[in-house]
Amino acid sequence: MMAACTAAARGRDVTVLERNPKTCRKLCITGKGRCNLTNACPEDELMGNIPGNGRFLYSALAKFSPSDAMKFFENAGVPLKIERGNRVFPVSDSAYDIADALLRTARARGVRILEGRARRLELRDGAVRGVWYDTGMGEQFLESGAVILATGGQSYPATGSTGDGYALAQEAGHTIVPVQASLVPLEAPDCAPMQGLSLKNTGLKLYCSGKLVYEDFGEMLFTHFGVSGPMILSASARMRRDGDWKICLDCKPALTEEQLDARILRDFEGAKNRDFENALGKLLPNKMIPEIVRRCGIDPHRKVNEITRAERRRLVGLLKRFEIPITGKRPLEEAVVTAGGVSVREVNPGTMASKKAAGLYFAGEILDVDAYTGGFNLQIAWSTGYAAGSAV
Q: How far is CA 99 from CA 17, 79, 103, in A?
């Protein structure tokens, strides 16, 4: 839609081929329906949040930056606000306002929206001449001097992102980097007893075969299959190779081990005659206590006044380094974004034009680019869409 709005503003004759009855279905579920549409962070921080071929995006982001995206939507009648972590949302907290702004702008600029599912490209003499599409009542041909593929990846297939664009790109000779889930919950069967527990202000370290890969601080959730939440989704984006993956939580990041030991000692002083399992209520959430008791190896019915200093220190170490082995990612269908896609080596970074077929362009998640949570992936969509719409 950004590509269409941009091309139409230049006087181009634009048709959006949309497979759904309504446009922007995936956009409407982003940010839990609130739409974290970009991030107002400094430029160097922006690039640091795009691990998936961020360098390829330098030109596109320079042409259409987060501030440009904010101006676009504010000019389209959507007041915006900046929240924690420089995340930008509509004041209304409604993703539909962002989708409506795109649709309203497109229509005002003369963009036609045609319902149909693209099936194959028409290629003649190394150039794109149009698209064959399915209306549900047979194939039709849409002739065009240029085609922008902006079909998304394969995450949230119910919104229409089923990977159609990859096959179309391959028709034109493009290489598809194998796709995988990114920003996705992680499987950790050992966590099942803590299902439903939400942790805040928690430290996280992600390791691969003993090597520290990523650190974070924030919120997470234990589920029936493992772990989820903002920190976990961000951690998943770093899991791009095979290895022995594990997460290590610091349940009390504000305290040093010595301070935590002193805190536990104070709690124990006030509960000398209680069983160990009943003396941790001030220190930990209830759902976590049985797991901590099990892991630290102290008899749950042992009296607190019998616990040795060495055992207490073992408890401290466990709370500062609570390890969670990760057995894998959840399916791609549950991912926020898709990593992989059309190889950026075969795309002009300034125009998003194909190096394989004249008249073919790309925008958004179909490309092998992806970022962390915080509005960065939508900014990639706006920037690449603007670049393609400016050049087509």
A: 16, 14, 6
End-to-end CA distance of the chain: 14
Identify each DSSP E strand in the chain by its residue range.
15-18, 38-39, 80-83, 87-90, 112-115, 117-124, 127-134, 139-143, 147-149, 176-182, 186-187, 198-208, 211-222, 226-228, 245-250, 322-325, 328-329, 337-342, 360-362
Give how far the C-alpha of residue 166 lies from the chain's centroid of Cα atoms, to the nearest Å.
Answer: 20
* Token code pair at residue 296: 């630290």
d(CA 222, CA 163): 30
State the CB neighbour count (10 A cutoff) for residue 268: 19
Residue 156, helix vs strand vs coil: coil
DSSP 193-212: GGTT-EEEEEEEEEEETTEE
Question: pLDDT tens for residues 116-171?
Answer: 999 999 999 999 999 999 988 889 999 999 999 999 998 877 777 788 999 999 99
Q: Which residues contact 327 (CB under 8 A, 6 or more apart)?
A: 187, 188, 189, 226
What predicted TM-score, i.e. pTM, was given to this entire model?
0.88
Placement of tokens 């008249």 in the chain: 359
pLDDT digits (tens, 9 = 90+) for 310-326: 999 999 999 999 999 99
Strand pairing of 211-222 and 226-228?
antiparallel
Question: 134 and 119 in contact (C-beta within 8 Å)?
Answer: yes
Contacts of 300 (CB under 8 A, 6+ apart): 275, 276, 277, 293
Average pLDDT, the chain: 94
CA distance 161 to 131: 18
Number of residues written out for the chain: 392
pLDDT digits (tens, 9 = 90+) for 195-249: 999 999 999 999 999 999 999 999 999 999 999 998 999 999 989 888 999 999 9
